[in-house]
């Protein structure tokens, strides 16, 4: 707005100068007119004296000038007077006044007789002094003019300030900061334009919310069951694909198949309303229980069968959870039907890393049939044999391992490049790995859940951030050396994941703020990623923390987008710069038109924003090609590169 302020200053200065010039010309004209009138009045008195002398000469031969002329000349403040007739002085007068700038009137009164008059007068204002009353009137006039000028200046400035505020709101709108422009209506003038801008911004805000609701509607009809509003079979397949790589599970966990055997008979005998009430109460109770299990999956496979996947859970905990699930089902008010005590059956299949994803459903189905053969409502766990010892470590052993790794700084960053549509590297995402005492790498899928349970995730992420800042500092020094050797300096950008525990920790956020201030020359090369489910559940609490990171100069990214069926309004409200599609949406995208529809809807909702859309988990060329056609600007995955240690 610098140009607008300069223009405002120039306009104000020009207006003041014009007003001052008009006032000066007005006062000068008034003074000149007054002086001219005064001289005119003096000339009129001289003309009257001439008329009297001519009249006396023509009608009264005996003038007797001594009787009446001296008092008149004294009243005129005459310096001297001389009346001659054919060069003969017939009357002379010398006053008692002196002047340096006399007014001399030398007129011929009668050309025939040669009557001539010479009158010397003082200047009209030479012996005049201003009274206090006249000075007061003049002072009041000058003050009135000054007050009017001041009032005009303030009024004009106020009007221009209103235009300035309109220009500021317009600049915010052009920059895409619609929320900020709507939040600061100000006192822009003309007010009609300001109110029109506010109304249009409110309608645009409502339209954006409506677009978010429409996107959620599309996603809901694609991935949600219409009756229970939980995931459908397609949603389950996508999420299982995300938990596996090449049909091999990436971590351990358990899958449950819950079946209501006589649901069809219940619907025929009791009606659809009773059946729907039972389904909703059961689904709500199970969903509430699953809130204690992070990244759990709940979906409806068929009319009477539900699937539940709980990753990162031990075998003992899986048995306990199965008992809780069956207990919740049995606690539901079941109408009077035949075999009501044999209505719910639960089949469980425990899996470890490397197990075949397609085989899990078969194993869970086998366990479900075994539970049904046992009679009555019960559950059955499919036993594959020994469980990996790594997963059997107790919380105490894990805490000891993690604390030693923190003290010995055995958490290391691994980076994977994100490639844009031109084939250039956009940035690198940092993944965390740990090394045991023998130097072997520990998978993040193993230690991160335990670190969350032990409350050590803030310390782990703090150590990773310190290592990344060290990498950037070394690259900056190397870039300076390259500049001296006429080589292009390094400008690497890293993205770092932040967990909910870290963002909720006051000590961590205070340390992060201090660190970003200390390394403010590097903050523009940092991107902090937050998971979508964390943002959705804790948006109000996380908003100040995310705003702090953004104000420090770093960028924000939300990942795992599409993992849940939610609206996308939070992307604008939290001012994210990037979003990353979850691998369950990206997997086999070229074969799944429903996932393509979701991506088109998402990108359409982000139209006219600067948010960049990236994809996670790209493994084959067809996936990347389809993503580019849909408008995704960048991607990462095994198709481009595996994570390598950042050194």
UniProtKB/TrEMBL annotation:
Coiled coil: none annotated. Residues 395-647 form the EAL domain. The keyword Transcription does not apply. InterPro entries: Cyclic-di-GMP_PDE-like (IPR050706), EAL_dom (IPR001633), EAL_sf (IPR035919), GGDEF_dom (IPR000160), Nucleotide_cyclase (IPR029787), Rev_trsase/Diguanyl_cyclase (IPR043128). It comes from the Bacteria. Keywords: Membrane, Transmembrane, Transmembrane helix. Residues 251-384 form the GGDEF domain. The chain crosses the membrane at residues 12-35, 135-156. PANTHER family: CYCLIC DI-GMP PHOSPHODIESTERASE PDEF (PTHR33121), RNASE E SPECIFICITY FACTOR CSRD (PTHR33121:SF32). This is RNase E specificity factor CsrD. It comes from Shewanella scandinavica. The lineage of its organism: Bacteria, Pseudomonadati, Pseudomonadota, Gammaproteobacteria, Alteromonadales.
């Amino acid at each position: 707005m610098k140009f607008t302020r300069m223009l405002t200053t120039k306009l104000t200065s020009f207006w003041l100068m014009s007003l001052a010039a008009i006032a000066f010309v007005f006062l000068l004209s008034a003074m000149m007119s007054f002086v001219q009138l005064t001289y005119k009045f003096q000339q009129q008195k001289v003309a009257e004296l001439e008329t009297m002398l001519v009249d006396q000469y023509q009608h009264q031969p005996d003038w007797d000038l001594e009787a009446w002329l001296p008092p008149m000349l004294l009243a005129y403040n005459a310096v001297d007077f001389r009346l001659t007739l054919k060069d003969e002085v017939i009357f002379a007068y010398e006053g008692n006044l002196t002047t340096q700038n006399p007014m001399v009137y030398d007129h011929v009164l009668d050309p025939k007789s040669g009557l001539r008059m010479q009158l010397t007068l003082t200047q009209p204002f030479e012996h005049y002094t201003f009274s206090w009353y006249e000075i007061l009137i003049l002072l009041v006039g000058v003050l009135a003019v000054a007050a009017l000028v001041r009032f005009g200046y303030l009024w004009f400035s106020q009007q221009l300030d209103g235009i300035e505020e309109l220009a500021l709101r317009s600049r915010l709108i052009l920059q895409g900061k619609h929320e900020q422009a709507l939040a600061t209506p100000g006192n822009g003038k003309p007010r009609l334009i300001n109110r029109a801008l506010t109304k249009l911004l409110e309608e645009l805000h409502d339209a954006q919310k409506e677009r978010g609701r429409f996107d959620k509607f599309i996603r809901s009809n694609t991935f949600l069951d219409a009756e229970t509003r939980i995931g459908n079979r397609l949603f389950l397949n996508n999420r299982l694909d995300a938990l596996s790589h090449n049909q091999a599970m990436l971590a351990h966990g358990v899958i449950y198949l819950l079946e209501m055997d006589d649901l069809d008979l219940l619907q025929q005998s009791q009606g659809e309303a009773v059946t729907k009430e039972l389904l909703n109460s059961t689904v709500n109770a199970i969903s509430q229980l699953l809130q204690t299990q992070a990244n759990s999956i709940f979906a409806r496979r068929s009319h009477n069968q539900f699937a539940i996947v709980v990753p990162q859970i031990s075998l003992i905990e899986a048995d306990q959870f199965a008992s809780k699930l069956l207990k919740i089902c049995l606690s539901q008010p079941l109408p009077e039907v035949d075999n009501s005590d044999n209505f719910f059956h639960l089949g469980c299949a425990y899996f470890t890393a490397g197990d075949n994803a397609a085989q899990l459903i078969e194993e869970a189905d086998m366990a479900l049939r075994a539970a049904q053969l046992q009679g009555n409502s019960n559950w059955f766990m499919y036993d594959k044999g020994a469980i990996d010892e790594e997963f059997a470590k107790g919380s105490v052993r894990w805490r000891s391992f993690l604390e030693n790794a923190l003290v010995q700084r055995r958490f290391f960053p691994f980076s994977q490049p994100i490639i844009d549509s031109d084939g250039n590297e956009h940035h690198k995402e940092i993944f965390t790995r740990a090394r045991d005492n023998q130097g072997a790498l520990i998978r993040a899928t193993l230690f991160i859940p335990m670190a969350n349970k032990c409350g050590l995730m803030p310390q782990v992420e703090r150590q990773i951030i310190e290592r990344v800042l060290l990498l950037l500092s070394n690259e900056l020094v190397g870039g300076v050396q390259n500049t001296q050797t006429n080589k292009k300096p390094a400008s690497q950008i890293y993205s770092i994941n932040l967990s909910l525990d870290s963002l909720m920790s006051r000590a961590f956020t205070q340390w992060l703020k201090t660190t970003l201030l200390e390394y403010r020359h590097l903050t523009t090369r940092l991107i902090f990623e937050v998971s979508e489910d964390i943002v959705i559940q804790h948006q109000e609490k996380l908003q100040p923390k995310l705003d702090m990171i953004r104000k420090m100069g770093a960028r924000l990214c939300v990942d795992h987008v599409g993992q849940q069926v939610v609206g996308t309004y939070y992307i604008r409200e939290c001012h994210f710069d990037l979003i990353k599609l979850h691998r369950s949406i990206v997997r086999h995208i070229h074969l799944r038109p429903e996932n393509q529809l979701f991506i088109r809807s998402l990108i359409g909702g982000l139209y006219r924003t600067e948010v960049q859309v990236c994809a996670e988990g790209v493994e084959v060329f067809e996936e990347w090609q389809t993503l580019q056609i849909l408008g995704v600007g960048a991607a990462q995955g095994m198709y481009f590169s595996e994570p390598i240690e950042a050194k």
